[in-house]
Design a protein that fits this description.
Layout lengths: L14 H51 L2 H10 L5 H32 L3 H15 L1
């Protein structure tokens, strides 16, 4: 693969010279778009993976913290409150923690849609070429 040429003044080049360079310029554009698409897919996969891990952490907290930590706190709170009220307060607190991790996962997935999709960049390039012709 040839490296893209440096920018230079083309004001004195003939029409045939400029037309002869069009295939190379188009090839360079296509290579750049493919590289941008690869980078976008890599970053999208990374964000999706992090979002999945955050959801798994939320499920882990919900599943394991209820019997272990919940019993300890319920026993402690039951010395001041009735047992049923102690259990209800602990459940509500753990539900808030679970929702926090789930929200962090959702925010990470939303980050996927904010990135510029390389396919839309290619479509924009094609539209601009059509408008010029």
């Amino acid at each position: 693969m040839a490296a893209p040429r440096e920018f230079r003044d083309r004001a004195n080049d003939s029409l045939l010279t400029l037309l002869g360079e069009v295939p190379e310029l188009i090839r360079n554009l296509i290579v750049a778009e493919v590289e941008a698409a690869k980078a976008w897919v890599r970053q999208a996969g990374k964000d999706a993976g992090i979002g999945v891990v955050l959801f798994l952490v939320a499920l882990f907290v919900l599943f394991w913290s209820l019997p272990v930590f919940g019993t300890f706190v319920i026993a402690g709170l039951s010395s001041w409150w009735p047992v049923w009220l102690s259990a209800l307060v602990v459940f509500a607190a753990l539900l808030v923690v679970t929702m926090l991790f789930a929200l962090l996962g959702v925010l990470r997935f939303r980050k996927l849609t904010r990135r510029r999709n390389p396919a839309s960049a290619v479509a924009q390039d094609i539209k601009e070429i059509r408008d010029e012709l």
